[in-house]
Design a protein that fits this description.
alpha+beta, about 25% helix, Immunoglobulin-like, single chain, DUF4352 domain-containing protein
Length: about 425
């Protein structure tokens, strides 16, 4: 057999063996013995669970939190503007943007010491908890705007006056929206007297004459100073003589020094003046410190701001506006309700807490927000539970439970624990 044929046969046998080995797993398996099958426990495959279980460790990326949803805009909105009239006059626009008529009660709080002289659209003056206000009861048609106006008289026409206005529901309890405006007296026209020419004013003439005198004296002094060295040189090195001049020793002049008895009193006087000035400056700075005001630097964020009812006051994150404060009559525990507008002026959502909102009493004590009463006044909604979205605004009542006959004198509102907050004086 040739060598080439023998080699091909060996290769063919090797390939056939590989094919047999590859075909063995495909052969049907032998049936197990019956006794062995009885002894072997039957295992059932676990059914796949409907939902995968939670991982024991948190995922690598945090689960994104749900963004704060801004509160819906009220169907009734209010806008207040002041007019440039000699007497305080305000224009109130109440708009119903809904598709159904709405019954509303509009209240405008009058500034202290003022009274209404003109009221349009059937409004009337009422007194609630020691505060005068103008009240309208309106029925707003769908998608309509109603304009109201009031004219006031005041004993201080030269000072600014702020008169906020709010629209409530038909019962006058839940606020829809509030707005405020400040009236400023128009500047009186000042008649300008004819101006005198510059060359006819005595002060200008005297100043010019004084300048000429100063320039003349300065010129004379410079002329004499330049001439003095030349005259001294001519007097010392004059024309020579036949006989030389005898050498005269120059007399050295001692520089005069001020007397010690003059230096000591002068130094004592300067020292006394310095100490006195420093003491006077320190005393004025210490006297200017207001011990009743809260700190505006250091650990506090932002600067503390104070104002009155109806004035927008801004702190680090929120802008607070107190539109109205009313208290129930009585001597025991009674509720004082403040209608407050809150606007988030920061670029991110912010949370605030009821315990940080305080009402200060005349005796110096304070009470925090009654959260249960506040929730009831907001129709069961917890206004402190959800953070406020950036740029959002809401008007809501805050309820404080106080004891005694005197109402709160000041409200303190803040967004966070370390925020300087705002303080509102209650008339």
């Amino acid at each position: 057999m040739p060598a080439s044929t023998r080699h091909h046969r060996v290769m063919a046998v090797f390939v056939n063996c590989l094919g047999v080995l590859a075909a063995l797993p495909a052969l049907p398996a032998a049936a197990p013995d019956a006794a062995t099958a009885e002894r072997r426990p039957v295992t059932h495959a676990a059914a796949p669970s409907a939902e995968p279980g939670r991982p024991s460790a948190p995922p690598a990326l945090p689960t994104p939190t749900r963004d704060a949803v801004p509160p819906p805009k009220p169907a009734v909105t209010v806008a207040v503007a002041s007019e440039g009239t000699p007497a305080p006059r305000y224009r109130i626009q109440v708009r119903n943007s809904g598709s159904a008529p709405v019954s509303t009660t509009v209240r405008q709080e009058l500034p202290p010491g003022s009274s209404a002289t003109t009221i349009t659209d059937g409004g009337r003056t009422t007194r609630t908890a020691g505060t005068d206000e103008v009240t309208w009861r309106l029925r707003l048609p769908a998608r309509s705007t109603t304009t109201l106006a009031t004219t006031l008289t005041t004993a201080t026409p030269d000072q600014p006056h702020t008169a906020p206005a709010c629209a409530f529901d038909g019962a006058g309890n839940r606020p829809y929206d509030c707005a405020t405006a400040t009236w400023n007296a128009a500047p009186a026209a000042v008649e300008r007297a004819p101006q005198t020419p510059v060359w006819r004013r005595p002060a200008v003439l005297l100043a010019g004459l004084g300048g000429v005198v100063v320039l003349a004296l300065g010129g004379i002094w410079l002329f004499r100073r330049r001439r003095r060295p030349t005259a001294a040189a001519l007097a010392h090195d004059g024309p020579g003589t036949v006989y030389p001049r005898p050498a005269v020793p120059e007399v050295t002049r001692r520089r005069r020094r001020p007397s010690t008895w003059l230096l000591v009193p002068a130094a004592a006087l300067v020292l006394a003046g310095t100490v006195g000035t420093a003491t006077w400056t320190a005393t004025r700075r210490v006297a200017a410190v207001d011990t009743d005001s809260q700190p505006t630097t250091g650990a506090w964020i932002g600067r503390g701001v104070a104002g009155g009812v109806g004035e927008p006051l801004r702190e680090s994150a929120f802008e607070f506006t107190v539109y109205r404060v009313t208290c129930q009559p009585g001597q025991d525990a009674r509720r004082c309700e403040a209608t407050v507008g809150v606007r988030n002026v920061s670029p991110e959502r912010q949370s605030w807490h009821g315990r940080l909102q305080r009402a200060y009493l005349p005796d110096g004590n304070f009470v925090s927000t009654d959260e249960q009463a506040t929730r009831s006044a907001n129709q069961g909604r917890d206004v402190f539970a959800e953070p406020m979205a950036a740029g959002s605004r809401m008007v809501l009542p805050l309820v404080f439970t106080v004891h005694g006959e005197q109402p709160p004198q000041q409200l303190e509102l803040r967004s966070g624990v370390f925020s300087a907050g705002v303080r509102v004086d209650v008339p």
